[in-house]
Amino acid sequence: MEIVIRSTPDEVASTVADIVERSVRRGPTTLGLATGSSPLGSYRELIRRHHDDGLDFSSARVFLLDEYVGLPKSHEQSYFSVIRSEFVDRVNLDPGRVHGLDGQAPDLAAEAARYDAAIAAAGGIDVQLLGIGTDGHIGFNEPGSSLTSRTRIKTLTEQTRIDNARFFGSVDDVPLHVLTQGLGTIGEARHLVMVAVGAGKADAIAAAVEGPLTAICPASVLQLHRHATVVVDEAAAEWL
Ligand code: GLP
């Protein structure tokens, strides 16, 4: 595992954007994109490079990490809408090349299986961006998730619903269930890039990077990966 500690969140964003840019410039690439606040700076930097340097996303393809169950794609807090408004619609990426999980599918287990098959049919993910929850979750793989899990339905912990309540009116408005790529699914991406900034993530980063490999800290699964890069600012690196 490669750990990159940068001084500021802006430098973190620039390092992550460098990794994505290299992959995009190499040719048609498949990106795994995450929501949450952690990768937002990196998306802003990539949008800037698109406008200022002509970084061309037209041949890239995107798979999302996870989705809330019960929200229509058009809901402003669905991860499909969020990734469109924060990134896709601000670069030259056709929304038809963006694949997400359907949180309103009548058969959620079938939807999860379809998604894993779609990722495989696309040749897998080249670069997967990841945030990390304060409890060490990645995607929506909450503590206790099997390290080899596939895409499936999960129930959110109270802590994650509290953490995400800021995007909704109140905790009660945060959906209880989600669909998420599994830890095994995520681990099949060729390059995992985890991004975390701020002191609030310091415990989770220390557990993921230097703690034991355990389902209690799902992000520790990165320790098993052939090519994982963790990009953090000094605040998030405090306990390393
Ligand atoms: C949500 C997302 C995760 C994200 C996490 C942390 O739970 N499903 O992918 O990593 O939030 O979010 P933030 O980066 O806003 O702290």
From TrEMBL:
A Pfam short name: Glucosamine_iso
Statement: the UniProt record of this protein carries the keyword Nucleotide-binding: no
Protein name, entry field: Glucosamine-6-phosphate deaminase
Enzyme class: hydrolase
Superkingdom of this protein's organism: Bacteria
Reaction catalysis annotation: alpha-D-glucosamine 6-phosphate + H2O = beta-D-fructose 6-phosphate + NH4(+)
Functional summary from the UniProt entry: Catalyzes the reversible isomerization-deamination of glucosamine 6-phosphate (GlcN6P) to form fructose 6-phosphate (Fru6P) and ammonium ion.
Keyword Hydrolase applies: yes
Active site: 66, 135, 137, 142
InterPro entries xrefs: Glc/Gal-6P_isomerase, Glucosamine6P_isomerase, Glucosamine6P_isomerase_CS, NagB/RpiA_transferase-like
Annotated source species: Rhodococcus oryzae
